[in-house]
Amino acid sequence: MRRTDGTTSSFEWVSLVIGIAAIAAGIVGALLATRIHSAGLYLLMLVGIVMLVATVWRIDWGLFALVAMTYARISDVAVHYYGAPSVAQPFIAFLALLLFLRWVLLGEKPQGWLPALATIAAYGMVIFLSLFYAGDALRAQEGLLAFMKDAIIALMLVFLIQSKDSFRMATWGFLATGILLGTIAIIQYVTGTFSNDYWGLAESQLMNIVSGTEGYRIMGTYGDPNFFAQVMVVIIPLALNRLRYEKKTILKVLAAWALAASFLTVVFTFSRGGFLALCAVLGLLVLLRKPPLIAILSGLLILILLIPFLPSSYFDRIQTILEYLPFSGADVRTEVSLRGRMSEYAVAARMFMDHPIFGIGYENYANNYLTYSVRLGLDPRNTERSAHSLYLEVLAEQGVIGFLMFVFVLYSAFNSLSKANKVFKKVSLEGEADLALALEIGFTGYLVSALFIHGAYPRTMWLLIGVSLAAYQMAKSEELLIARAIFRNRLKLKETASIKKAGKSEPYGK
């Protein structure tokens, strides 16, 4: 390990942290060994111990593990499929302890976290207020607790992403998810092994594709194909960035792997929202990155060559998007999926009109849905439903106040990425500048998809928010390091010039 000034830390410090890592690994290993009987989980335990040791050696590996584990929902899979204790919570506590010790003993104080804390806390206050007016206060309380966990992860990312290297490592955490979940999902779909959940990493379900046609849709670890497509579409522009700017061949190969796996996964989910998000991402990549014509034509050629290998029912399903357009002439009453969606949207609008300022209460849409839908008379289903749109859900549950705070959080995240892009360009770090832009594009794809699905897995969104909020301060830190390096070089040049000048003038002084 090295300090921020370049000096080697003391042996006692290294021994202390390694001891803490060993104790933590032992506790996790003991818990797993006594509670599970699965070779896959023992392998996961071994990987976890290796990651703990790697985190001690270099904390950026802990950042990589946090992003990959959270985005792929590894801890949730271990809990729900194998009854294992939560892996995420003790790992985050370990990272927090490690950050604290590095701050106290090495002087590595995290920078730029106060604005992120204030932004997230302001939105959290709106959620907290709903405890006092929500019809079901227990649901609101559970939602608040879940938000607090998500907020901690977002802030942890701000603490950890302090340099361009850590920014890059976080990106590889997303790409690792694309490689792992995407590859398994594609294998499952191509081989037709839908009865095999691949250790809980590849759920699938026989669902309606179009009227009269059913087929399996892959869901990864998200339990729903639409949410799976939403998180995978984010990875595509990030993978393109690493494919372009990584210097090592092996990393370029891995980036290409993540790109192909994520793209095909979005297709095999048969998600219409995922398709629109994919179109938005590809369009923004062309519009904002302005690739050469040969690159655009090559991409189009690849897409055309892929068409014969894609299931024909996929294109049939995508065509149904036209039925949602006002001028399509489709009868809402005759199509079950369309009728349900329209009912869920209309109910959210009526909830908002009844409670425009603060909303009906956080996490209170579902339990109030039937009260409104019965009066509307559009949806015959006698079950709780979700808003099927993140933005309508926020409006219905949190009103204008909550919606404005939500928009402010998103604005802060995108503003941080935009300013980071400009700073990186200023100091000629083109790869990092493009990476900030790639995250903007990927996050935009996520939010486009959110037009058609609610916030069932908000942790992925807060993960993206955390990385985004960290970007600007991290870029400023890199700019400062470069400025200091330039200043030191100038001093050395001046000292060298002075010495040479003094040496030449010495004979005349004798």
Describe this structure in words.
- The protein has helices at 11-35, 39-57, 59-71, 74-82, 88-106, 114-129, 137-160, 164-191, 225-245, 249-268, 272-289, 293-306, 312-319, 336-354, 365-376, 390-426, 430-449, 458-509, and strands at 203-210, 213-220.
- It contains 18 helices and 2 strands.
- Helix 3 (59-71) packs antiparallel against helix 5 and helix 8 packs across helix 9 (225-245).
- The protein has a two-stranded antiparallel sheet with strand order 1-2.
- By secondary structure, it is mainly alpha-helical.
Average of the residue pLDDT scores: 85
Which stretches are poorly predicted, pLDDT < 50 over at least 5 residues? 1-12
User: What is the general shape?
Assistant: globular
Most strands sheet: 2 strands, antiparallel
- Helix content range of the residues, please? over 70%
Please report the distance between the alpha carbons of the first and last residues. 51 Å
Return the string of H and E elements.
HHHHHHHHEEHHHHHHHHHH
Strand adjacency order, main sheet? 1-2
Percent range for β-strand residues: under 5%
Q: In total, how many beta strands?
A: 2
Number of helices: 18
- Derived structural class: mainly alpha
Radius of gyration: 26 Å
List the helices and strands and how they pair.
Blueprint: H1 11-35, H2 39-57, H3 59-71, H4 74-82, H5 88-106, H6 114-129, H7 137-160, H8 164-191, E1 203-210, E2 213-220, H9 225-245, H10 249-268, H11 272-289, H12 293-306, H13 312-319, H14 336-354, H15 365-376, H16 390-426, H17 430-449, H18 458-509
Antiparallel strand pairs: 1-2
Helix pairs in contact: 1-2, 1-5, 2-3, 3-5, 3-8, 5-7, 6-7, 6-16, 7-18, 8-9, 8-10, 9-10, 9-11, 9-17, 11-17, 14-15, 14-16, 16-17, 16-18, 17-18
